[in-house]
């Protein structure tokens, strides 16, 4: 306490000077319209800037919750869009999809907790497991495109075989040519993927979209796989050599959607029955 008193005693002249300056400043502002308006505008400008910085800091701190909310909204929109597309497929006018068939895909949002892209066979771990209805074989997509397929699960986590895997294949279709092929990663660049088995007789151009076909039960048809980047010819073969820009950026993957095909078990059971009767 004594040191504080000594400080004020030693600094009494400076403190008196500051107080008089503040008093003078107060009288100038209150007795002059010009300086009063100037002070008001300046203080408002700086106050607005400080408020903007404060809001920006708060928004940044809330980004995690905002991203989670957006992921939930995308989940709902994905489910609705898929239902509408399946109820009105590109088919003859007299065809009408069964309501159960049109509503067979269900989406569960999950957060990525681990992800690799540097290996020949890459995997992704998410924070949802069997307690959330996840099971092996389910497809996984991102807000922009295909991600992979669930490999194993426990109660709270699941491991996904990434599309960046040397043995993983995705039945895919060129949108314009309507030709079905197989998307497969060549193990080189995590931003590129190959599209195989597209006949040279089919016209292909750069920028064409490639989506999941309707001949697999893992993904809803129409999910973007990528866009054609380069077009070549496979040596001694009758197929295009197509390289695609992957739709999903795996280096910044945060949230994914696990796709449940509610009718997949029925389809698989029937197809296996046919195989055993051959």
Task: Write structural notes for this entry.
This protein is α+β, with helices and mostly antiparallel strands. Among the domains are: 2-60, no CATH class; 169-251, Rod shape-determining protein MreC, domain 2 (Thrombin, subunit H, Beta Barrel). Helix content is 36%, strand content 29%. It has helices at 2-10, 12-31, 33-61, 63-87, 99-102, 264-277; strands at 105-115, 121-126, 139-141, 146-153, 158-165, 169-174, 180-184, 192-196, 209-212, 224-233, 240-246, 255-261. The strands form 2 sheets. The chain has a 6-stranded antiparallel beta barrel. Strands 6-7-8-11-10-9 form a 6-stranded antiparallel beta barrel. Strand 10 (224-233) and strand 11 (240-246) form a beta hairpin. Helix 2 crosses helix 3. The protein is elongated. The N and C termini lie far apart (98 Å). 24% of the residues are buried. The mean pLDDT is 80. The chain crosses the membrane at residues 12-29. InterPro entries: Cell/Rod_1, Cell/Rod_MreC_2, MreC, MreC_beta-barrel_core. Residues 112-260 form the Rod shape-determining protein MreC beta-barrel core domain. It comes from Spirosoma foliorum. Residues 60-87 form a coiled coil.
